[in-house]
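=== Structure Prediction Worksheet ===
Name of assembly: unnamed complex
Input type: mixed (protein and possibly other molecules)
Chain count: two
Listed entries:
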Amino acid sequence: MNWKTFFALLARDAHVARRNFIPLVLQTFLQPMMFVFIFGRVMVSSGFMSTSYKSLLLPGIMALSMVFTGVWAVAMPLIGEFQFTHEIEDRLLAPIENDWLAIEKVLFGAAQAVVAGLAVIPAAWILLRPGVDLNLQSPLAFSGVTLLVALLSACGGLALGCSIDQAKIGLMFSMVLTPLIFFGCTYYPWSALANFPILQKVVLANPLVYASEGLRGTLVPQFPHLPLVAVLLGLLIFDVLFLFVGLRQFRKKAVA
Amino acid sequence: MLAGIRTQDLRKVYTSAPPLAAGGGFVVRRKSKSQPAREIVALDGLSLDVRPGEIFGLLGPNGAGKSTTVGILTTRVRPTGGQAWIGDYDVWAQQVEVKRLIGVVGQRPNLDFTLTAREILLFHGAYFGIESQTRAARAAELLERFKLTDRADQLARGFSGGMMQRLSIARAMMHDPQVLFLDEPSAGLDPQTRLLLWEIIREYNQSGKTILLTTHNMEEADALCRRLAIIDHGRNIALGTPAELKASVPGGFLLRVRFGHHSPELLERLEKLSGVREVRINADSDGENNADLYADRGGSLVSEIANLAAGCSVELSDVHISEPSLENLFLHHTGRSLRE
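=== Predicted Assembly ===
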């Protein structure tokens, strides 16, 4: 393992992220914050939703922002760099095993996801207050879940970014990400699906469910949520699966 | 440390479409009907031995396997069979060691569009662990050498094709590699820049570096390469210095003539003309009324050919003379022109 090269790769990504800071921030926060404003503020103040919905919504929005950020941060550059600008070729010739380049992408994407997730808390709190009732009981469990969610998003981004054709990016959003978001228990707890027993089982195949429920369970445990063990197990399984698939796809792209 | 390049019996069969970098234009050969996958044989047992410190050229038409060879030697293409070494390192088994030794300029631009020209060089240097002061000095020096200093702090995204190509070559030289691969280096460059590039390549070679370049430009191969391999259908069909290779074509001059109709008698008589070494029916054309004459002399033969044709009542409709060149050599070995 060649640490100098690895850090130089990270430095390059950080440099590019710094350069694109404002579009990056808008792209990460605009949509979730609009959602928070409409559902948490407009709908609640007009009486269509109860005040407690504010607290229920926050972890879901956090999960959504993290997953969206991580997937975007890893998948979009990979799609562009492999298929359009080919600029990744220079880094594939850097003196380091190709897998480390993929891992670097995952780490950097995960770091961005953590930042995006943590930034949602104060931002949403400002937008929603008063009435947000955060109840952090175990910082350790919260950190663990946050970390696993960040890795989930970045590994998912690696798998998607190395599998999807440039011409099908639109399809990726409409066919993959949108259903994941709506059936990801982001805007409602998993228990709310009790009236749809089949759907309730099916959505357990959606990794976003574990992200939303995990953050809900550690940030606002007063609401119904999946047990922590199930959440950690679910996240871990999806992390490993996506990393495995992602690395395999990455190798296929990197070497003809 | 001086490093050469060696390949032994290198084979590459693509089962899906070959990557763009490998050129395209391959001939699809299906081995049997029971074999459903579309197989494209890009390299068919290629063995090369490039000596340390030499400029070696791979010459061949599109789809000959040049870029695939470069791809394998630079760890970007997995060989189907055979072995390749850079210096003492096995390219496939010791990739990291190999990557340290090589610099690569690909056929298509692959610059980091989110960085400026200077940053591209600096980050490239950083990947190779070059210390930051050395990096800055070397980047400035290369930008100056490649006449990019005034655009150094602009994003590479807005560069013209020629500027991108210059920057790509500067980047490949940034970590001072022992072996430099240049895949069609002067494609898209104006004549002036091409001369600058040739000068830089020679200079780099004089510091003991090995350079492998692919080209289908005769003039370039002739001007730069100490030795050349001519490749077609993934096989090495001729190897030697440019002078040796040119001398291997009978006569050196090539006269491509077209007659009104085919006349075996005329061809027989042409063969007996003084200075004519070989007469062939031109394989490029459909009919048999085109002939290639390999000869010791060029223009002075034309009137004699015209006289002979008139004597056989055959109309001479076209003559094209080419002087001793690698193009003729390629034609002689493959029956096809390089530009096809």
